[in-house]
Amino acid sequence: MTARAQIGVTGLAVMGRNLARNFARHGYTVAVHNRSYGKTQSLMEEAGDEGDFVPSESMADFVASLERPRKVVIMVKAGAATDAVIDELLPLLEDGDIVVDAGNAHFPDTIRREEALSARGLHFVGTGVSGGEEGALLGPSIMPGGTRESYESLGPILEAVSAKVDGTPCCTYVGPNGAGHFVKMVHNGIEYADMQLIAEAYDLLRAGLGASAAEIGEIFAAWNEGDLESFLIEITADVLRHVDAETGQAFVDIVLDQAEQKGTGRWTVQNGLDLGVPITGIAEATFARALSGGVPQREAGRRALPANAEPLQVADRDAFVEDVRQALYASKVVAYSQGFDQIAAASAEHGWDIDRGAMARIWRGGCIIRARFLNRITEAYERDPQLPLLLSDEYFTDAVGNGLSAWRRVVARAASAGIPAPAFSSSLAYYDGVRAERLPAALIQAQRDFFGAHTYRRTDREGTFHTLWSGDRSEQEA
Ligand code: NBP
After folding, report:
1. Which of 139, 319, 357, 443 has the most CB within a 10 Å radius?
2. What does the entry list as the binding residues for substrate (predicted)?
3. What is the pTM of this model?
4. Is 242 close to ligand 1, i.e. is its CB under 6 Å away?
5. Measuring CA to CA, which residue among 289, 305, 300, 303 is closest to residue 257?
6. pLDDT in tens, 156-209
7. CA dist., res. 63 & res. 8, Å (int)
């Protein structure tokens, strides 16, 4: 076996197969391997003429076909399968080789694997890859972690196959060990929030306008020409205009209204709780999916709970559509602002030194949340790399400020009409919370001190205090 392949992919289901084809189409010689040989054979039969592939049936031959330092991309089902593949690879690799996990690993697993492999003299690169199977083939957004040294040789290959926006690759070095997979996790969390916000906008428009799904689809198509331009708005317009061939009904009307999740939303929310970062948009989106899937609860609720709501009466249709558009944009800014706060907090906690502006830049193409508006985020972090709150950047202060009355109207009307808009309303509550001069947290501190002697600080002088609530109610310095 001649060691002539520049990169190898093991795991040739939809993602690995397409990523391997993408490498080959860019002129790289690609070693390919899969646990069961059938997938390798079908790749060679169906796409073998797209470039220079070196297929192997055994892992030993696969590794032997790679140039040193070897670059092995693992694209298998995240979890135990990744560990199984790493265990099989380890005895075959040598100092300085680079193992890339491009699956959707949970970032603590990546930290663990990186530690184990670096102790063996290997580089372990946990990388986020977004864009689904089409992205993998035509250019995904790629978020690699690991050592800077590994990025020097691996980075150019990943940048070559990534999506490009204005000639800039949607791939950059993210940070050490788990940073790449962490950023991919938050990307997916933001994707949850974005989808939920779009769904709420759709629901309000449909109720308010009494319009068909296709008519709402036209509104989304028009929105895609402006600030909201994004992949998710574009596909929403497409989906809403799609007709079910069997029944002739709007496709969206024949789909069961119980949303599923694979777990990245949950991981993002769990991590938000661990770090104490209020990612309320992502959390509401994740819980809204859970609510939709709670069949017995929904049946009981439908039977027992009165609405006492006023129907949504829309006098000026265009004005209502514009209000919903502005509410959607403002809520979306909040969701992203929260996600970038989470990245900042994790970066500080783990010493990753993640450049948030660069993350927005590599999400502009290839991935599910690709959007025009990400340029604005990059610019905001270029103006101030340490920006404590994305919302406080002048561009977003203006953009959200201009739509604020519309946002309040939409949330108020949704509430009086009994239409659930959890992401819209929690984003507005966050906005009002984070801008408040004074919060009722003062009362919470006082309650905590009352029942648990948890102490409090005062507004008028330094120190920590406790009041003797069950005694003479005098104050002591704690
Ligand atoms: P799957 O997640 O469906 O995994 C199938 C692959 O894993 C097959 O190649 C299978 O080999 C291999 N595999 C399994 Br299962 N257990 C194994 C083991 N113990 N040892 C070796 N190989 C094993 O594939 P996918 O949908 O292409 O996704 C690959 C990765 O990319 C996942 O981590 C996924 O989360 C991530 N991802 C997917 C998407 C997407 O849109 N699908 C998007 C972004 C990221 P076999 O053929 O022998 O069974």
Report:
1. 139
2. 104, 130-132, 187-188, 192, 262, 289, 448, 454
3. 0.96
4. no
5. 289
6. 999 999 999 999 999 999 999 999 999 999 999 999 999 999 999 999 999 999
7. 8
